Amino acid sequence: MPLTIVRNDITKMECDAIVNAANNSLLGGGGVDGAIHRAAGPELLEECRRLGGCDTGKAKITGGYRLPAKYIIHTAGPVWQDGKHGERELLCSCYRESLALAAEKKCNTIAFPLISAGVYGYPKAEALRVAADTCMEFLKDHEMMIYIVIFDKAALAAGEKLFADVRKYIDDNYAEEHSDRKNFEAFRRKNALFGMVREDAAMSMEAEEEEAEFIVPSGLARAIEQIDESFSQMLLRMIDEKGMTDVECYKKANIDRKLFSKIRGDIHYRPKKTTVIAFAAALELTIDETRDMLMKAGFALSHSSKFDIIVEYFIKKGRYDIFEMNEMLFSFDQPLIGG
User: Fold this and answer.
1) Which residues are designated catalytic?
2) S-S: 308 plus which of 41, 130, 264, 301, CB 3.0-4.6 Å?
């Protein structure tokens, strides 16, 4: 998926470029800035000395030196005051300027920390929203894999009310494992053993008889001939019905162009469940339409899965923002949706 959250140490990211949440001097500091300087080595500081600092909201680029990344893009984020001093626009500018430099250097992959959300005090949930909105806007006209790197789970703070609402929805709907699980397993093993005995007996009988030719029942043959539309067919039909272009749809779904081309070119393409959900959200399908699309791909929504319950919550509430859904899935340690 073109934009995704990952939990990692940004200095370990193997990308064309990583972004450093730097101070205006570019000479190193604490947090992410200090970690990147330590990992890159003293050569980075020497190059930074020649750059003459960086204004807030701007970005400058250096080599990656001892990092896995080819480039380091340094951007100076705003210090949070009260949200009324242009902080959002300055933070948006950090992402835009960094992405522009990456595109200029023909980078295919880039990793961002959550800029200004550390000692600069920008509220984490709002900082993440700015990052998502700005990156998604950039991706409308560019092809690039963008990672937002969270060092640990505690560093991600989803909106508290939304998080609480989703947790309650999970608690109300999640089907816990039954207490008689052991009895069920014993029952299953017993029947499996019985099945093996029956199979052995059948094999001994078959040894005495000539193998019969397999014939497809006429009813089954007719059913196969009348097979329903596939996932690919339904997807393309829904794109037309919603008045969207292919590009609008796969961009909104946070799906890679190459993956969409595979789906369009193969009527029998079997997608991952996360891909189906992403398209359902992009097309703003109802919960019944979503279930129908999932069924055509061989999937269903189940209350024995937290992933399914979270997806169901967002679709029933009419909240189709892919990144907001992924933010919540990430918070509950669930797979993210997209390609």
Assistant:
1) 33
2) 301
